[in-house]
Each structure stands twice: as C-alpha cells, then as structure tokens.
Write the structure tokens for this entry.
Amino acid sequence: MARPDGTIQLGHGGGGRLSQQLMQELVVPVLGPEDAVLHDAVRLVSPGSQLAFTTDSYVVQPLFFPGGDIGRLAVLGSVNDLWMAGARPLALSLGLILEEGLELAVLERVLQSIAQACRQCGVSVMTGDTKVVERGKGDGIFINTSAIGVVEHDLQIHPSSIRPGDVLLVSGDLGRHGTAILAARKSLGLRTALESDLASLQPPVEALLAAGIRVHCLRDLTRGGLASAVDELARSSAHCCLLEETAIPLHPTVAGVCDLLGLDPLGMANEGRMLVVCPPSDAERALQVLQEFQTDAAVIGTVGEPLAVASALQRRYPASIRNALGVLRPLDLGSGEQLPRIC
Amino acid sequence: MARPDGTIQLGHGGGGRLSQQLMQELVVPVLGPEDAVLHDAVRLVSPGSQLAFTTDSYVVQPLFFPGGDIGRLAVLGSVNDLWMAGARPLALSLGLILEEGLELAVLERVLQSIAQACRQCGVSVMTGDTKVVERGKGDGIFINTSAIGVVEHDLQIHPSSIRPGDVLLVSGDLGRHGTAILAARKSLGLRTALESDLASLQPPVEALLAAGIRVHCLRDLTRGGLASAVDELARSSAHCCLLEETAIPLHPTVAGVCDLLGLDPLGMANEGRMLVVCPPSDAERALQVLQEFQTDAAVIGTVGEPLAVASALQRRYPASIRNALGVLRPLDLGSGEQLPRIC
C-alpha cells in the first residue's frame, strides 16, 4: 500500500491514488466486485415495496473481543435491527473512519470478518466510503453500517401494536456482551471464560414468523440492555410494563461480575438477544420456538394498562420490576455511563 | 441536558437516561417526530422497485466553513450521490459520532443545518444513531449519512454506458470547496471571499432528464476533484478520456490560491459540481441546460477509444490532458495528501 510500515496514512482518505490503491488492493479483494464499491450510488432492485431502513455506528473498544470483533458486530448489529422489523436484509452500506497509523493488517482482519458475517446473513456490502483522520483524532476504526431490508409479512411489528395483557419474552440469557467487553479491557484485570452473545437474530425471528406467532413487537437488547429496551417500549407504546426479576435468565458469570463491580445486569448490553412481545394466547408457543435456539429463553413479564389510565407515578416510571419478595419498584434505567463504547 | 456546562458526556452515548434525554430534548425537536428516530429500523414504502443506495462519512475540519457546515455537507453530499444515479431521495439515515466535551450548542447548530438541508432536498432523517467517544478519541463531530433513492427513468446512468466519442461537460467552475476549506483553516493565514460551492445537484440533473438528454454517466466532483473523477471513469468504463485544459472553468481565486500554494486545481474538491457524459449529438443542448444554472458550465473533453485497443501507455494512464500549447500529458491523479479532511 505504498508505505513501508504497512499503516494507514492520511492520503488513503484523500480520494487520490492512495485511496484507489486501498480500494483495489485491500477492500475489493475482501468485500467483492469493484462495481459494488467504487460508485457514488449503487442501483438495486427491490422485490417488494415494503422496506425497512436502519443505521448504526460502531466505536467498540477493544476492536477484538471474546466472541467477536467490530467488523462482525457492525454487520450483525445492523442486520439484527432489520430483523426487529421482521425485515430480510437486501443491502448493506459500509462507512469506515480510520485513524492515521492504523495497521493495514488490523483493517484487513476487520474486513475479513465483515465479509464472513455478510455471507452468514446473505447480504452484501453494496456501497461504501472510507475516511482517514489524523492520529489522535480517532481511535483505530469506527464503522457505520446502514441496511435496507424488505418486509415480506403482514404483521405490524412495532411498539404501537402492543396491547394490555401482552406477554414479554427474552430469547436467551442476558448481559454476556457487556460482560465480555468489560473483561476484555485489560485495565480491569478481570478474567472470565465468557464470550459475547453476538449472533444473528434471523433464525429465531424467522422461526417465530413461520410458526404463525402474532408478534406485536421485537426489540434487540443492545446498548442499555433490557432495562432501556423495556423502558423505551413502555413509553413508546404508552403502556405500563411489569418485569418479574426472578424470571430473567442471567449467566452465572454475568451475575457474578455485576455483583463484584456493582453494575446492574439488566443494563448490560447484549448483541444476540431480543425481547419478544406477543398476545398471551401465543406466548407458550413463542417460548417453545425460542427455546429451540436458546434453552434459557423465558417469559419475563407482561404489559399492563395504558398509561392514559395509569397513576401519576406509573406515567413517570411506566416500567416496573417485582423482586423475589414480591416488592415492586420502578425499573431503573441507568444514566448510561456504566460502560462506555460497548458497541 | 443534565450537565451544567452544556457539553456532551460519555453517558449521552450509553443507551440510558442521558441518551434518552439527548434524543428527546435536542434531536427530536430539531429533526422531527419521535417515531422516526427512536426505533431499531424504520419502515417505509417505496413507490418503485428501482432503488439507489449510497453512504458517506463526513469528517470535515473546520465544522463550519464559508458556504456551509458539516451538517449541510452530510445531507447534500449523500443526496447528490443519489442524483448521480438520477435517483430521487426517499429516506436518509444519520449516524453521529460525538466527542466527549462537544458543546451542545454546536451540536444543535449542526442539527438545525441538517434539518434545513433536508427540507431543501425533500427528504427526512428516517433512522439515526448517536455514539460518544472519549475526549481525544474523536474530533468534535463525525457524521455518516446513508440515503435510499428511487430511480424513475429508463436511462442506465453508469460508467458502463460510456461510449467512444461521448462528450465530457462540467456543470460549473471547479475547486471552490477545497479552496474555501483551505482558507478556513486559520493556521494557513489565508484570506479570501470565496465560499464553498456546496449545493444540491438536483436542479441540473432534473433539468437534464426533463430535456431528454441521453445522459450516459454523472459523477460529482468531490474528494479528489476532477482529476480523480475522470481517472476513475476512464478506468471503470475502460475508455480513454481526453481533457482540454483551457476549457476547464476555474474561479480566479481558486487559480490564484493553487498557484500560490503549489496545489493542482484539478485535484481540488467540489461539493456542488458534476461531470456529465453524453453522446455528442446531445452535448450542445446539455450545455445549454447546465448554463441555465451556472453560466460557466463547459464542455471540457471527450471519450476516446476503448482501452482494449489503446496503447500500453494509455492503458496505464487512461486519462490525459492537453494544454494551451497542444502538449498532451497523462492526467496526474495526486496521491490524495494535498488536503486531508476536506469532506
């Protein structure tokens, strides 16, 4: 790449000869045909008119962690967001912001991981962009992926479909991603065998749809964990939500690390777990479907009355949680500072 | 925003209460309805099956420059990329990477600018994401925008449509954006009255299509300027391209600054200029259409023979330029280091 020390330099983002070389020698060989990467906009044909669209930037540290890396996270994260609308991925975009001095070998490893995750999800990087910032103005690699999906079912999978009496399920045990990242930060001196739960949510979502479950809403439990997701769903659906603390599945290591460090496991990030909201009549079948993929999938709560008829306290804290002693308390959302740069 | 000094803190990117507040108090009031910003993926209906998709990250420094700012650039830049496929914008995504300590007032100004540019382009931010990195791991604001467009014409606007004898036109004078950014960098002590050419390319593209011009290819002349664009088009279309140096319109300030600093004006970035490739029989009408928007739009070159039958030198340097004395030389692409972080 025209530099003996094998690192990214500012010119790689300048749109000239070095940019061209980076594309032709590193990006295109890994990610696919030149045609898909070099033009202003790519043309594609949609098989349906019902689309879904999502975007996420990824700034996770470290770039490589037990169970994944920033490249795999960037693909699965955005594709999972599409599946939360029940949408099949059609096209992915890739925006890289590289820091001057980044080793090309690191970039190549991330690109390989992106390519592998794309193959797994049946999607391709159709358009991309690379920028370079000076040393000390970035942090290795930041990635943005945006994704277009096509919706091929008649359900309205959306907070507005949530109804009183609906059942809340999680697709597996919680908090692995956050805990794995925490342990991977060397400064903490924490050693666990735990891996991130990073995974595609396509199989369980497709199975729910195929089983005819009347899915009202889906939400992946990433940044902010279960607590943020349930709080947001309660607010955006304008319904109270009640969680049963004893029903929430946690890996023993997650529970132990959170205990040790005084962190809330319900605020820990996941990258392969989702919340499923469905009518009570479908809940048992939904649980069976989810348990085919993760044996500790569980029913963890219910949707209560509309906020319009709820108490003032409930309107302020629409989500609450009941502990083993039967004590009900507002669900604590957390300020968001417990673990920065988790994704 | 829960912090007395009015700056971004790490928790604003943590997915908890602070993230929620940032969305509800700053982002949603400026960019639009909550529904469009808070969900994993947004659903939208496409009026046609022929889509275009593009992505770009923006790391320009300074954030505010004569004639624009990073917010306006991020909207127009990606929407212009869609128009380069002749596609009308349908939806925009917005990914923000903020540096801890960024003033909220700066963020709000950028968001206002994004909202205004969206209104001008007839598009909305339909999905978004905000991340925060520690002080010294970013640089104020980085923005990614991705855009979906719909193609409502039957032309194949693409390098593969380029034919021998085609005419190359530019839609106006070149190099203003790069020069304005250069002058805005205080360390250079350069003072000019020049503004960036940052503008929507929708009006001239729509006018070309409405006039029935058989447009073979369009390319906006951003990073890398005219030199990169012509070199890339020559390579991807596998045809020689010849530019006439005396025909290329340059603003006197651009020419002067480039002379002074030893920069190549043909490598200077633009953000509101494009290259148009059309058959010779349509070139005069195309020029008339373009001149209705910019009086100094010009015919600047032609497409030569296919590379397959060209000389070895031409296959290596498929684009060349003829100067006032009639001397032909290979078009120098530049390494890309002449001006980092131009967009």
Q: What stands out?
A: Chain A touches chain B through 93 residues (CB under 8 Å). The longest helix of chain A spans residues 104-121. Residues 10-151 of chain A form a domain with the 60s Ribosomal Protein L30; Chain: A; fold (CATH 3.30.1330.10).
